């Protein structure tokens, strides 16, 4: 499944014609050089495309509408080289439907103390030109990212790169289609939600299919195709028989191979990018999808357990945002299982019955086949591994009844203190920031779910910027969180987002 598309970002420079053609020629030359060097930096994940200097209402509006209809344009970067009267930007900004970054920079890094004159001052006016423009964007209540600093500064370039990935998430959100195989787990609240409102807010299409319709696609997979995929499994992963007969074990693995192929073909045919299953409704499927889901997630599909379509969509979204990232450590659905409350060793064991994405694995990945008490089917084959150490974010998108809220928690992933030889699942172990007691209390106060969309590769700021662009509330749990202020922020959110 292709995750990274050939998106581009338009670089639009603002100016005006008060100072003549020579000044405008310098403006164009400066912005062209900046675009060329930003692209040559190797920092930005997507190409920046220079656009002619914008000096009139008509040209700004025309340029932004061209950006709207260009499917390869994922966002617009704006910068006011000289003073650009902001009323000229109103119509264009009213009609712009692409993510917006305001780069507050200037061509020169240092004031040229020995040579500066009024010609230089008139030409290089970003210090107040960007404030004029910024005032208008704020007055119009338009969500945007503001990045401040010299354009050659690696930190500035990293911030632009980070925003590009958020912009991809904003654009691609409206393309996400989730296939629900069966319904939500009975009587569970947090996996429910308003699918119509989700399509209005995020653009997600969330559709239901009878289990046996996809089971028919699984049954249609040929034996030869199944055997070929089983061979791939046996080449790629460690096989842990643990006393089981090798041929009987292989038959169980083959069931998952057939499920993977059948599911993937069905998803491709119907153009879905995420899937949910539920162990309580498996129809004609011989096993609860396990190894098959591990693999589909690794290919870029979103997944949510027990019918959790919000998590499935968020995992897909976050995989799109991290596509093509160098040294990516992985993104997956996870679930809070059990605590370690030993002082100094506090943390939460993250896992699920079967379906964690192997992109987050550290070290060997094994196939096990063990009984599963839920689902009333054959013993499912699944991947077993432990996850990487490092920082990450856990997110939970919840339906508050009158609005959506995105909860974002910075977490520190660690190795478990001891091996768990009797636990046949993939695991992660993390301590939420600022610590387990405060982090867990804040999560519960915010209404966070037990399923999360987790990533090592995205930041809280990126997901918060996405939430702002979607027009929904974002709450942050991090090293600075204290419960008194957190409760106040939740109360303010009730007022602002009601």
Radius of gyration: 25 Å
Q: What is the 3D shape?
A: elongated
Major sheet size, sense and barrel closure: 6 strands, antiparallel, barrel
- List the uncertain runs: none
Q: How many angstroms separate the termini? A: 38 Å
Helix content: 25-40%
Lateral arrangement of strands in the main beta sheet: 11-12-17-16-15-18
Provide a count of the helices: 15
Oligomer classification: single chain
SSE class: alpha/beta
Give the integer mean of the pLDDT values: 95
User: What proportion strand?
Assistant: 15-25%
Précis, in short:
This protein has 15 helices and 19 strands. The protein is α/β, with parallel strands linked by helices.
Characterise this structure:
Helices cover 39% and strands 23% of the residues. The chain starts with 7 loop residues before the first strand and ends with a helix. The protein is built from 15 helices and 19 strands. It is α/β, with parallel strands linked by helices.
Key structural traits:
498 residues, alpha/beta, 6-stranded antiparallel barrel, 5-stranded parallel β-sheet, 15 helices
Layout of helices and strands, plus pairs?
Blueprint: E1 8-14, H1 21-40, E2 47-50, H2 57-69, E3 73-80, H3 90-95, E4 100-104, H4 118-123, H5 126-139, E5 145-148, H6 154-173, E6 177-181, H7 195-202, E7 205-209, H8 211-219, H9 223-236, E8 238-239, H10 246-270, E9 274-276, H11 291-298, E10 302-304, H12 309-321, E11 331-340, E12 347-351, E13 361-369, E14 381-387, E15 390-399, E16 404-414, E17 427-432, H13 436-446, E18 451-455, H14 460-470, E19 473-477, H15 483-496
Parallel strand pairs: 1-2, 1-3, 3-4, 4-5, 6-7, 6-9, 8-13, 9-10, 16-19
Antiparallel strand pairs: 11-12, 11-18, 12-17, 13-14, 15-16, 15-18, 16-17
Helix pairs in contact: 6-12, 6-14, 8-10, 9-10, 10-11, 13-15
């Amino acid at each position: 499944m292709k995750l990274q598309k050939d998106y581009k970002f338009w670089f639009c420079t603002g100016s005006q014609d008060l100072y003549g053609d020579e000044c405008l020629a310098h403006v164009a030359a400066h912005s062209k050089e900046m675009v060329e060097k930003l692209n040559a930096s190797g920092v930005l994940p997507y190409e920046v495309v220079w656009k002619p200097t914008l000096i009139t209402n008509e040209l700004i509006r025309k340029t932004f509408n061209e950006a709207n209809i260009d499917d390869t344009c994922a966002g617009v970067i704006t910068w006011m080289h000289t003073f650009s009267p902001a009323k000229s930007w109103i119509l264009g900004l009213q009609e712009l439907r692409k993510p917006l970054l305001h780069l507050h920079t200037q061509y020169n890094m240092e004031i040229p103390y020995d040579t500066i004159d009024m010609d230089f001052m008139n030409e290089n006016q970003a210090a107040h030109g960007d404030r004029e423009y910024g005032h208008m964007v704020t007055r119009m209540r338009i969500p945007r990212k503001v990045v401040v600093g010299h354009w050659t500064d690696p930190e500035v370039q990293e911030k632009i790169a980070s925003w590009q990935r958020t912009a991809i998430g904003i654009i691609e959100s409206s393309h996400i289609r989730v296939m629900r195989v069966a319904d939500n787990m009975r009587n569970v609240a947090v996996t429910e939600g308003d699918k119509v409102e989700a399509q209005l807010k995020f653009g997600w299409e969330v559709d239901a299919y009878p289990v046996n319709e996809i089971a028919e696609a699984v049954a249609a997979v040929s034996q030869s195709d199944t055997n070929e995929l089983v061979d791939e499994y046996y080449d790629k992963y460690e096989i842990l028989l643990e006393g089981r007969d090798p041929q009987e074990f292989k038959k169980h693995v083959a069931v998952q191979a057939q499920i993977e192929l059948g599911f993937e073909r069905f998803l491709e045919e119907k153009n879905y990018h995420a899937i949910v299953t539920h162990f309580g409704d498996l129809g004609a499927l011989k096993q609860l999808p396990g190894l098959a889901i591990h693999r589909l997630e690794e290919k870029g599909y979103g997944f949510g357990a027990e019918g959790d379509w919000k998590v499935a969509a968020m995992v897909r979204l976050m995989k799109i945002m991290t596509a093509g990232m160098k040294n990516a450590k992985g993104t997956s659905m996870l679930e809070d299982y059990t605590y370690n409350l030993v002082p100094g060793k506090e943390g939460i064991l993250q896992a699920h019955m079967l379906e964690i994405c192997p992109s987050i694995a550290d070290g060997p990945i094994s196939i096990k086949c063990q009984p599963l008490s839920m689902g009333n089917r054959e013993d499912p084959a699944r991947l077993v591994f432990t996850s990487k150490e490092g920082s990450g974010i856990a997110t939970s998108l919840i339906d508050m009844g009158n609005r959506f809220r995105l909860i974002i928690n910075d977490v520190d992933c660690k190795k478990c203190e001891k091996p768990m030889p009797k636990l046949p699942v993939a695991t992660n172990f993390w301590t939420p920031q600022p610590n387990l007691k405060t982090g867990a209390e804040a999560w519960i106060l915010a209404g966070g779910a037990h399923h999360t969309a987790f990533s090592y590769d995205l930041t809280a700021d990126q997901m918060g910027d996405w939430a702002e662009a979607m027009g929904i509330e974002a709450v942050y749990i991090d090293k600075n969180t204290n419960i008194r202020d957190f409760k106040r922020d939740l109360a303010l959110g009730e007022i602002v987002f009601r």
